[in-house]
Design brief:
Number of helices: 12
Strand content: 5-15%
Strand order of the largest sheet: 1-2-3-4-5-6-7-8
Oligomer: single chain
Mean pLDDT: 93
Order of helices and strands: EHEHEHEHEHHEHHEHEHHEEH
Radius of gyration: 21 Å
Largest sheet: 8 strands, parallel, barrel
Helix content: 40-55%
Structural class: alpha/beta
Length: 319
Amino acid sequence: MTTARFRPRRSCLAVPGSNPRFLEKAQGLPVDQVFLDLEDACAPLAKESARQAVVEALNEGDWGGKTRVVRVNDWTTHWTYRDVITVVEGAGAGLDCLMLPKVQDAQQVLALDLLLTQIEKTMGLEVGRIGIEAQIEDARGLVNVDAIAAASPRLETIVFGPADFMASIAMKTLVVGRQPPGYPADAYHYVLMRILMAARAHGLQAVDGPYLQIRDTDGFREVAGRSAALGFDGKWVLHPGQIEAANDIYSPGQEDYDRAELILDAYAHVTSREGGARGAAMLGDEMIDEASRKMALVIAGKGRAAGMRRTTSYEPPTD
């Protein structure tokens, strides 16, 4: 994974761009990322005024180190180009990424990249600094996800949009994220793995979409646990009650984090001249080698990004 684009995204809070109270409240919540929404969370009549509210929130708010994202409308609408121009010209210095919804092919990402580049050059902003998050929300987008993931060096994240996706394939359920009745296995496994493979093949993060039953914390944990187990980096949260669960589920456990750091220290030692320049060695009852180091790097990286502190230290063997 490219370190230049790696940001903590365990919890990604959706904030309606047309709601000043929510824009203010979001600044104090313990989430890794906020995305100020100009798309589904804004009624058509409120979209234009929401642009300026989002600009003011980015410029005047105290976001406390959170990743700041704005979700614009998709390219099939007449709002997209003006969303991008207004937000980036007005608050480009306070913006980390734009999220593009309903991405169906690589050309839609390239179009956003080109428009961003033109605005950055015009406004004297660093060209290429603003990233892109691509949201996969229908069958066509999923079929083209490899090309989408490779479309632009600005891409940081592939996001699953479950509600629109379920509608696009006529899935037989009205509860977003729940298994459809009558199917004995995990109906989302292929979709999640397909997105994850495309993301990882191109050094990107993968983020799971929302769970709409906002008071069902157990249901949220179950659905989030599914994508976290596969390797997803985080999940959307729609309510403050989901934040703690997301931050917990997408962080490694303390024992796993400590073990990962020990593996990295032990492998660095045994492969050094002082440690005998060996390719493999024992760490307790476990044989560790280069493959172990790669696995440990993933867990340690997530733990460090989450601000975890190790509780153990490595002591080289004396014999």
